[in-house]
Write a structure and sequence with these properties.
Helix content: 40-55%
Distance between the termini: 19 Å
Largest sheet: 7 strands, antiparallel
Strand content: 15-25%
Shape: globular
Structural class: alpha+beta
Radius of gyration: 25 Å
Number of strands: 7
Amino acid sequence: MNCADYIENFLAAHADGELVGDELRAAQEHVAQCAKCRELLAQERALKTLVRTRVGVLRTPAELRATLRSALDSADGVQAGAGGGDFGSRSAGRLKLRSPGVWVPLAVAAAIALFMLVPRALYRQTETVISQATATPQAVPLTPGGVPEFDIAIATIEQFNRRFEPNVTSDSFGHISDAFMRAKMPGLVLNFMPAGFKLVGGRLDRLPDGRLVTRTYYRGELGVILCSRFLANGMQAPPNLDHEVQGYYYYRYRGYSICVSFDAAGKFACVLLSNLPLKTFVQDVLAPSGH
């Protein structure tokens, strides 16, 4: 299978989990050997996840509900006043208010208001999160001769295992991605649901040296996963790796399994960490997710 064949005939179905048998094996073998198609698969899955979360039903904000209720009550009052207090006139007024000529414009206005209010609320929340993330980071004990980025990730996941408090207050892939991008950080939020891991939530924090870091935390029956992304600042794959496949570097460090990768420009680093055995983490979790 070549790249053109995979992209044209298998990519979409692979991302949707629709391939089985020989087709699935062929697709998995190809992405395991092709960094380009592996990245396309990750992007396709992220896009499909984003679309699914955005198409869901949104609850109208309380502010908007109160405004619309007040507007409807006022409109009923105006209609009743115009009818001189006669019950028949008031009834006619309410019927007129609910006629298409009146409620269609109201519905359009409500839709426009919802479109404007929800993004503004999310933007205000993100601004607050970014502001909170500027607080002085806590110091993390480092392993002598170890890898600071790994020690920080381990301290973080152990803290999250005891108590996780997202500061991006949503478990929606789309909302978390938006918050990360507004902070001028990578917006890709990995989906490990096919491997049985649910996204618990996301955070924007600071590393001990002040760099902004995005964190997404996942839980499953087998264990936990933490994904951290931050400016690489010249970071390279640490030595003593277990193995490397197409730009993904795998480690066993202090009892944890770790995958390190970098974006195409080398600007951002990604550290994936789990308490699963390395073989299980790579074969059962990362490989189906395109890593």
